[in-house]
Amino acid sequence: MKNLSDFTRKVLTAMNPDPELARQVLNPQGLYPISQSESMKRFVDRMERARENQEKILVAGDYDCDGIMSSTIFVEGLKAYGLTVGYYIPDRIKEGYGLKPKTVEMAAEKGYNLIVTCDNGVKADPALERAKELGVEVIVTDHHLLPENVECEVLVHPDTLEAAFSTLCGAGVAYECIRALGIEQDRFLIWAAMASIADCMEVRGETRAIIQEGLKLFNQKGEPHLEPFVRSKPITERDAAFQIAPRVNSIGRLADRANVNTFVRYLEAVNPRVISQYADKVIALNDNRKQLCNMVYAQSQALIHPTWNVLLAMSPNFHEGVIGLAAGNLCSQYGKPAIVCTKGESGYKGSMRGPKGFHCLNFLSEFDGYSALGGHAQAAGFTVQEDRWEDFETFVKTYSRKFEWEPVEEVTISIEPEEITIENIRSLDAFRPFGQGFELPRFRLDQPEIVSQFDLSGGTHRKFTLANGVQAIHFNQSSTDAASDPSTIESLIGTLSISCYRGRESADFVIDEIVYRI
Fold it and tell me: What pTM was estimated for this model as a whole?
């Protein structure tokens, strides 16, 4: 850390990475060598045999950004290897997640000898059993929690690879598989990077390298299918998370308005006019997704009470594709676990989001009326059996009163207004990518000396000017903040940003939260 400035040293010390992650942050080495694990060798051997025997392969993917990118990496990578490849991604609403027996039967009918799953498969027991009955071999590539046994021909999973690959997402696993076949293309690395960001993977090891190298390629060389989704280049991992990932995800979320399989064809397209036309449709669909999400979020707020330990909202009118986003918004606003549900054909579909310190899956697992349940600590999805909805409501209200959890205290970095400079903000780029396991803390200005304030957009936003001339901007302020006396402000908590107006850059403080003196 001897070459770091006082500011960057302060930030890195507050983030407190373990020694190995600190080494990766301060001395990036690029991509790790190709995996030499037994599972990867078995994958390569099976692909060599498939090529020799001219077998047909079906890639079975998933409908989120990670699933779409991993599907396309496999489809294009295996074609480049000399194989005949088809693909299928299920309909989120009609079919749900994962490889299904029906898909296996379809593959067998169409003459596919081998199925390669990506971003799914480890819990597809009925489909794997059906494949065995029909004589169709299955290679499972996945990154979700691994059960004790997966009945398949080959299993490639971060747990079966070397430690450096332990945080890979589905597209990360797909990228490593194609690399092991000797096929390396810039677009595959870019797609794997975007998927890793979208899936909020821990940014260490090979995942960190994939994001760094993929973003570098995107900024230097571009990627024609994803560039229409960004405002300008260069982009950071944060830009990818807020500009690219939601647009890709919108195709799978709104399965009643678009076929997610068309996005794979889009990524394969080379005609600029075709690319432009489809990109416009994706952007419009994402705008539609935003409207739906805002509507479900607003209606959910009317159905919950802020004093509940776990917030629960259900309406048969909610769109299934955005209930997870609405639950996330409720969780962020109230700092409490939130569940949003809708009525589906096979029961009540629900999504849960929890703040740090709360374990969604542990909470939900105490109820026995699901036809499907999956997820992890801060997010889970489920289907409640149709005749058990009232039992579920009772369970949430009663169990939430006794379920014990401790909120994780947020680390903030206290800074002086004089430290808010363009040079200091840019110096943090050396630590990128930030993300899960290496999150850039928010900054805190204590006892800020405010010399003026100005409201924008009819009071929706407020701009404070500090004594040293720095602008502190509060977007979408609450009615409480709008009515508060600025002389009672104890602290401003937020992030640092560089803005540009008429060609002139300035360092700003973007306020997330205001703490007042009592």
Answer: 0.93
